[in-house]
Design goal:
Length: about 550
């Protein structure tokens, strides 16, 4: 009789609970060895949300922490158990473990109270575990004030230093400090208006515990972003930061190709590897290809269901919406390029000053990269990288973002009617609806010096609604030139569509009729339909969209 498969650890981020329940575990324990052997005393490891940061820090805690119960069984049959560091470092250190992942308050006062409570709980946990601690009256009084939430703000700012000193002296052993999701309250502060308050607190708090602390063995922090040194980590000369751009720790978070294949094979899902790759693959950490672990676990847990956007369904994209809106039409055009499956070239800043996000739109791309919404394709030179959407799941976020941009200006049923007309080759009705939309959403200021780009971006954004039926492509080579927009149906029996944009040349006294003829002639002479024909699509609709200011005309070839 075959053994019943292990349960998946959906939503379990406590390492001890996962191991005691004998859940399926992708072995990341060599991460412990890498932390111990790292030359830096303090490490910051930013990764996207739900990529295993909390579980890894929990694992470090159970490995390092000197406690009353032997925890060796948690690491039985795991990779770390066969290394020398296991005997030398296992359960040898007092550990301060703090998680800020739930600190998303609307007001600074509530955020501050939440931080104080997290510090109080950890302080109380240690005092309860220490047998007859030898504390001077002032130190004991200070610790009790912290636990009872009656200490001064400066006392909480220095609490990490104080607690590490007390533990080091009591156990005669240096301390390990683990801080999970250190930047969650920073994101909340930025979006809710108390950024300067939280930055000031975190700068003093982290510096107090991690800078020149003679009682410290190792410090490990996780988060999504590396917030720039001048904001939080000023003066921390013992800090090393390893982002997704670095080779170090590149397979510690998320699932590698081999780990994903092993998991799917264990649950008899090897035949669905191609689906997993299309939906959840594509991240590049250093040179390691990484799958989204949250989505893979949920995909395997629902092994008889179609792939779904598990990761993005847990996301709060309000900050992305806000940042993208500040960027204006240039940002929208570039998101349109990304949606087509193409890449953009941008500078990437691995240290972000969040208050600069609205002032410098280019920082948006760094934010999207480190948050998991883009991937690097290749490093060009210096800070320049080629960036792309990693997979289909993330592509849905951008598609919904464009939909939300139009939602405030265009009635959804109007867009649906227009697209239905296009799909059914009702060109006259398509033209009428497109004219109405242009009058609604476009201003002469938008048209500027490159109206073709504006019309192109507008129509491309609307066509995103059809991406579940068509591959939407633009500015790609086909035949003897580059078409403007192509809609390649996923069902070969459906109609393929080619759209060419052309501005009426007033300086040459060109009429819109002549312009339409020229656009349709270009489609034929450049043989833009060759890509569709090569894919076996027989029914092809060729459209010329000609414009003069906010006036436009559509004709089929």
């Amino acid at each position: 009789m075959s053994e019943k498969p292990k349960l998946l650890p959906i939503g379990i981020s406590d390492f001890k609970m996962l191991r005691e329940q004998n859940r399926y575990y992708v072995d990341k324990t060599l991460f412990i060895k890498d932390i111990i052997e790292a030359s830096a005393q303090v490490l910051l490891l930013p990764r996207p949300r739900r990529f295993g940061k909390t579980l890894n820090l929990s694992m470090l805690r159970y490995f390092f922490e000197h406690g009353q119960e032997n925890q060796d069984f948690l690491f039985q049959n795991l990779a770390i158990a066969s290394h020398d560091v296991f005997k030398k470092h296992s359960e040898q250190y007092p550990v301060i473990y703090l998680t800020f992942k739930d600190l998303k308050a609307l007001k600074w006062e509530d955020c501050r109270e939440g931080i104080y409570q997290v510090i109080a709980w950890e302080t109380m946990r240690h005092l309860e575990n220490m047998k007859n601690p030898s504390l001077s009256p002032p130190v004991k009084e200070q610790l009790e004030a912290i636990i009872n939430l009656k200490a001064t703000p400066s006392a909480y700012e220095m609490s990490l230093r104080l607690l590490s000193e007390v533990l080091c002296r009591h156990y005669n052993q240096k301390v390990v400090i683990l801080i999970d999701e250190y930047d969650t309250p920073l994101h909340a502060g930025y979006s809710k208006g108390y950024y300067e308050d939280i930055i000031s607190f975190m700068r003093n708090f982290l510096s107090g515990g991690l800078k020149d602390n003679t009682h410290l063995f190792k410090g490990v922090l996780t988060g999504i972003l590396r917030v720039a040194k001048e904001s939080v980590f000023s003066g921390l000369n013992n800090l090393d930061v390893y982002t997704i751009l670095d080779e170090n720790f590149n397979n510690a978070f998320g699932f590698t190709q081999k780990e994903t294949a092993g998991l799917l094979n264990y649950f008899n899902m090897s035949h669905r590897m191609a689906e997993a790759e299309s939906w959840y693959n594509g991240y590049l950490f250093g040179s390691e290809v990484i799958y989204n672990p949250w989505s893979i676990l949920n995909f395997a847990n629902r092994n008889n269901e179609k792939p779904a956007p598990y990761w993005i369904n847990t996301a709060d994209t309000s900050l992305i919406d806000k940042l993208a809106t500040f960027g204006g039409k240039e940002i929208r055009e570039e998101i349109g390029i990304l949606l087509e499956g193409r890449s953009i070239i941008k500078p990437v800043h691995d240290a972000i000053v969040m208050r600069d996000l609205e002032k410098h739109p280019d920082i948006l791309w760094s934010f999207l990269l480190f948050s998991g919404y883009l991937k690097t394709v290749r490093h060009l030179e210096d800070e320049m990288y080629e960036l792309q959407i990693p997979n289909y799941e993330v592509k849905l976020i951008y598609r919904n973002l464009i939909r939300s941009w139009f939602a405030g200006k265009i009635e959804q049923n109007r867009v649906e009617d227009m697209l239905s007309a296009l799909e059914n080759k009702n060109v006259n009705f398509f033209e009428q609806m497109l004219k109405k939309i242009v009058m609604q959403v476009m201003s002469y200021h938008d048209l500027g010096n490159s109206p073709e780009k504006v019309y192109h971006a507008l129509v491309l954004g609307i066509l995103v609604w059809m991406s579940y039926k068509y591959e939407i492509r633009s500015n790609r080579e086909s035949g003897h030139g580059r078409y403007d927009i192509m809609m390649k149906p996923k069902d070969k029996d459906k109609t393929g569509i080619i759209i060419e944009f052309k501005k009426v040349d007033k300086e040459k006294n060109e009429s819109h009729e002549k312009a339409m003829e020229a656009a349709l002639k270009q489609i034929e002479e450049k043989n833009y339909a060759s890509e569709l024909q090569a894919a076996g699509i027989r029914d092809i609709l060729k459209l010329a969209v000609v414009f003069q200011g906010k006036e436009l005309w559509v004709r089929k070839g």
